[in-house]
Amino acid sequence: MSETRSGLGRSVLRFWIVPVLLVIAAFASVAVHVPKNTALSPLDEYVYVDYIAKVPSEGVVAEGEPTGAFAREALVCLGNRGVPTVPATTCADAGKAPASVFPMAGKTSADIYTPLYFWVTRAFAQPLVWAGMGLIDAASYVGALWLAGAVVLLVFAMRRFRVREPVILGLGLALIASPAAYWSSTYISTDAPSLAVGAALALLVARYATGSRGLWLFPLVAAVGVAFKVQNIAAVGIAALAVLSIAVTRAVRERGPRRAVAVHGVADGAVALDGVADGAVAPGEVADGRGASGGVADHVVADRSDGFSVEPADTERRRGWGQVVLATVTDRAVYLAVGSALLALVVQVVWLIVRADIQAAPPPSQGTEKPLHFANLVTESLKFLQATPLDPTGRENGVAIGTAGILLSWLVIAGVLGCIAAGPARTGIRPIAWSSLVVALALGPLLVLGTLKVSGYYFELPSRYGLSMLPFFLVLSGVLFSRYRAPSVLLCAGGVVLFGASLLGS
């Protein structure tokens, strides 16, 4: 009994040690960096602070609405990290200064997002505010919850594909140390939920690819994810395309002919059948197994007790492409994938209608408008596969944080392309890799054209718009680098070193 309990205890410890270590690392990173972030983030934190401050009184911020005194005082008194110019007013007079001295003529730009992120963040920050903490710090600490949730979901997604535990730990620590996590989780940012949304979708796809249930949650995660931030539709796109690709792959695989063979007595019974192990078939039994050729298995009948021999029997007709299409379109997973993608689009369309209805004034000019040329579409298309872990604020990153971003960038490229070229068969990895590549290349042009249609102008897209795709990329990297022991150990060691170094500076 004691040995059984000891074995159970070791099993539980092995199961939870990596997720617990990564959760501790996520909370430690946020706890260390938030007090050091004395200025606002240049990634729109000024308008996000304004939104969170207005949640109790307004609930929803309207397009063209002026920012409030709280956010204006924060911008002037704290400064905007990496931005040398500040509004022409003093800290004491910031709340009374004219709107013209503030960015975008004192108007908000956070109205493009639904209020969901701001409501949730304010709700979790409020107990800290009641305890005496400032609202900006309290809301920034909420990022630890999003980051911790993301790494835990990522662990379970990787385990579905038998990624080595050292690789999971190394990639998780490198992610926590990277600019992608730093800028989204240690400041107030609508990017905070993106990693968790992407990791949740990656886990659902991994479960489907490995034969488990749970895909019924896909519509809920897709709708909520896009409600947090419209750019999270990138992860929804990868998930939907991956499910469709896996369903088609399975249907095509089942096209192979089923061959029936009758088995008759032989004295020693020493007959090797394709897909049937020695001794696996007893007299009078029927066995189905998959042949070495990869087709559907032989149909074996053992009818005597004095050994086996084989003779051909009936052969079923090979499934036609029409049957493959029918099998695909009648697969419930396909309906869930298509329905989830459409539901995500509906959520955004509904929000655009509501946003237009509550508009307070014309939107402000952000000063980022550019003429659109074909070369811009090419640039945007190539951006998200390699730049998602980096973020555009590289000059503000510490050495360790910047190095972690560069490492993840190379691992992402290797993971996606490597799994396309040499991913393990029959696991769903290759369809996921192809889906990731297609969506990563298509996201930029689609967002540019969508913005042009809705807002009437083009601006250079930040790489953080692809943040929700990063968990899919990391799963692929984990699969690729788990094939050999040496890269696993090096990746784990590198993640530990980079995470430790990232806590020393930002």
Average pLDDT: 83
Number of helices: 19
Work out the number of β strands.
4
**What helical percentage do the residues reach?**
55-70%
Strand order in the sheet with the most strands: 2-3-1-4
**Any low-confidence stretches, pLDDT <50, length ≥5?**
258-316
Strand content: under 5%
Global morphology? globular
CA radius of gyration is: 27 Å
Topology order in helix (H) and strand (E) letters:
HHHHHHHHHHHEEEEHHHHHHHH
Q: Given the helix and strand composition, which structural class is it? A: mainly alpha
Q: Compute the separation of the termini in Å.
A: 51 Å
Sketch the major β-sheet. 4 strands, mixed
Summarize, please.
By secondary structure, the chain is mainly alpha-helical. It is built from 19 helices and four strands.
Describe this structure in words.
There is one protein chain. The protein is about 60% helix and about 5% strand. The protein is mainly α and about 500 residues long. Helix 1 (about 1-35) packs parallel to helix 7, helix 9 packs across helix 18 and helix 16 (about 400-420) crosses helix 17 (about 430-455). It is globular, with a radius of gyration of 27 Å.
